[in-house]
Amino acid sequence: MRLKTAFTHISNPALAVQYLKEALFSPELSSLVCYYTDEYPADILTTEFGKAFADVPLVGCSSCKGVMTEHGFHAGPVIALMAIYDGPNSAYGSALLSLDNALTDYKTVTAEAINQALKSANRIGEIPSLVILHATPGNEELCIQAIDETFGTPVPIIGGSPADSYIQRQWSAITERGTVKNGLSLQLMFPSKPNTTGFSAGYSPTEFTGTVTRATGRYIHEIDGEPAEQIYKEWVSDHSSVQISEHYLFKHVTRFPLGRIAGYVHNRPYYKLSHPVRMTPDGAMEMFATISQGEEVTLMTGSREQLIQRASRVVDQANTQNYQSSQLLGSIIIYCAGSMLRLGDDIVGVQEKIKAQMNGQPFICPFTYGEQGRFTGGETAHGNLMISSVIFYESE
Predict the structure, then answer these.
(1) Residue whose C-alpha is closest to residue 306's, from 240, 380, 387
(2) Domain ends where: 301, 325, 351?
(3) Which stretches make up the FIST C-domain domain (predicted)?
(4) Would you say 99 and 109 are in contact if contact means Cβ atoms under 8 Å apart?
(5) Contact call for residues 303 and 349 (beta carbons, < 8 A)
(6) How many distinct structural domains can be found in the chain?
(7) Are 331 and 238 in contact (CB under 8 A)?
(8) pTM, rounded to two decimals
């Protein structure tokens, strides 16, 4: 098994895909992982990929403003591919699912998608080593739950919610079968080499904690019986003296997300995060993740230095499970778009630290509107401002 990345800023989709084919095509090509900015029409991209890489399983989604690889941070317009070359004992299968029906039975349709991917991989009845999941914003938690229920056992998941550059719902998810704007793409991987995963928030809890007393879907209406917007702004102001306005909301919420305890390691909690998308006229907060009535939420905080350091720490966390310290082959890393936007030009420092942690081996990293993964304690979750990673490494 080996991995290789390539990227292009060519604006014409047909010419861009042809360039990527020349850089990556080989008879041993087993799978493609693709991330692109929303300047590229996803339907045209998938048509061109189908011509250039016929019958090669592909999975991917749109990324906010750019993509990272071991070659650098690539600002959009850009398309980046990771090619996976593997042997005859491996298998890869993709599936694409539209969720436009408001009455969707997520368990049933996700099971259908998984069976589609298993059939494509010729691995019916088997459990994959890894699931790559790209569910458009709003569907992530239900899709994760359905995946675990379908297999009947926890399966390592790495995922990111498709993003656009200006939160205008111009996101998309793709496979070799096509594209969806409301739905999911996934790939089941049965690689010939082992892999390990990591998932982390990298933010610290503050002293402010409350209980969600009224919530609907992704809207928090009340915390401790008071309007959620009022409580959140008071917490941020009391902690940091920052006054949040709607105009500068996104600038500040990436500094101060809400955390929910996902589990414990040595009696110390670790958190999954979510942050407001907007404040509503009635004092509620629309979030990028579902938070239920009765859940406890804590105001979290993270410095710029923490954001720069944490991506390489998550890669290191995944690699600590590589007990034989085997050679790294490559990695897929999912990094939150909100954190990337907050860092600005400092995102280059993140890329450099990941490259050093990976010893220069290939990696690909989109910037997403939600991240999915499995914590150290085994819990699978969807959150915001998170980092998820998988490392492939050489077996003994």
Answers:
(1) 387
(2) 301
(3) 228-375
(4) yes
(5) no
(6) 2
(7) no
(8) 0.88
Does residue 79 sit in the same domain as residue 111? yes
What is the arrangement of strands in the sheet containing 178-180, beginning at the earlier edge strand? 2-8, 79-85, 29-36, 58-62, 173-175, 178-180
264 in the same domain as 227: yes
Work out the pLDDT band at 331, boundaries 50, 70, 90: very high
Residues 292, 327 within the same domain:
no
**Alpha carbons 93 and 114: distance in angstroms, whole number:** 9
- CB contact at 8 A, 378 and 197: no
**Residues near 268 by Cβ (< 8 Å), separated by ≥ 6?**
none
Number of Cβ within 10 Å of residue 144's Cβ equals 23
Choose among 204, 103, 184: nearest CA to 372. Answer: 184
Q: Contact 312/359 with Cβ under 8 angstroms?
A: no
pLDDT tens figures, 67-103: 999 999 999 999 999 999 999 999 999 999 988 765 6
Find the helix packing angle between 304-319 and 347-357, rounded to 10°: 20
- Percent pLDDT > 90 in the chain is 63
Single out the residue of 294, 265, 253, 267 nearest to residue 384, CA to CA.
253
Q: Is the peptide bond before 77 cis (omega within 30 degrees of 0)?
A: yes
Distance CA 344, CA 346 (A): 5
Do the Cβ atoms of 160 and 366 come closer than 8 Å? Answer: yes
With cut-offs at 50, 70 and 90, classify the pLDDT of residue 323. low
Q: Of 387, 244, 253, which is closest to residue 318 (Cα–Cα)? A: 387
Q: What is the DSSP letter of 244?
A: P
Together in a domain, 141 and 260:
no
Pair 114, 11 in one domain:
yes
